[in-house]
Specification:
By secondary structure, this protein is of the alpha+beta class. 43% of the residues lie in helices and 20% in strands. The chain is built from four helices and seven strands; from the N terminus they run ααβββββββαα.
């Protein structure tokens, strides 16, 4: 090989080696710089996916897309109000009722030797095995009748006349001794716990007399 040819080959080899030396690092630098950008795109895509999936649920709860409206509680009926009574009117209706209960209790006593009945000074005591002793008494200061039951406990009853509304005849209501907290009346309780049915034989004769002033 001649000297000029050998010189040209050496120069070409040197240029190729120099070009490869300077180009390789630049390629690595570009790849390294591209990695954070690719990671940023991936993170952004994930955030968009999470945001889209959360927005698709319209419900207030995580597992409900269309929640049912909250249940509305039914409006409770207003409690009964005691009927205003004068002292004389209270004494009349309370004594008549106590006498009826006393009479019915004595009728039961005649058929059962273990039942004891005592009525004195407005206090009626009924010993009724196996339940125990019932105490029913008048309370003139409060215009009430009080009951102490071994089954249902103590209760205070007010005289309530129902059915004397604006469009109803005066005096046509029905009077009962009512426990205002739950709306139950004393007559029903005595029937359930003692078998004392106040109006069973009296018919409407006593129950119809609801106006103590008559």
């Amino acid at each position: 090989m001649s000297a000029p040819a050998a010189s040209r080959m050496l120069q070409r080899t040197m240029r190729n080696a120099t070009r490869g030396f300077f180009q390789a690092p630049r390629t690595r630098q570009m790849q390294t710089a591209a990695r954070p950008f690719a990671q940023l795109q991936t993170s952004s895509t994930r955030m968009r996916m999470i945001s889209t999936s959360n927005a698709s649920k319209a419900g207030l709860m995580p597992d409900s897309e269309d929640p049912e409206p909250p249940a509305v509680k039914a409006t409770e009926a207003p409690p009964a109000q005691p009927t205003e009574l004068s002292d004389e009117a209270y004494a009349t209706v309370a004594e008549e009722y106590m006498e009826l209960v006393h009479e019915k209790a004595e009728q039961i006593q005649e058929t059962r030797e273990d039942v004891e009945v005592e009525y004195s000074a407005g206090v009626l005591s009924i010993t009724f095995p196996p339940a125990g002793t019932y105490i029913i008494n008048k309370q003139p200061p409060n215009k009430q009748i009080w009951l102490s039951s071994p089954i249902s406990g103590p209760k205070r009853y007010d005289w309530v006349i129902e059915g004397e509304g604006m469009h109803q005849k005066e005096g046509g209501g029905t009077g009962e001794w009512v426990y205002l907290r739950d709306g139950t009346n004393l007559t029903e309780l005595l029937g359930e716990e003692l078998g004392i049915h106040i109006y069973a034989q009296a018919g409407e004769e006593m129950k119809g007399s609801t106006d103590p002033t008559e």
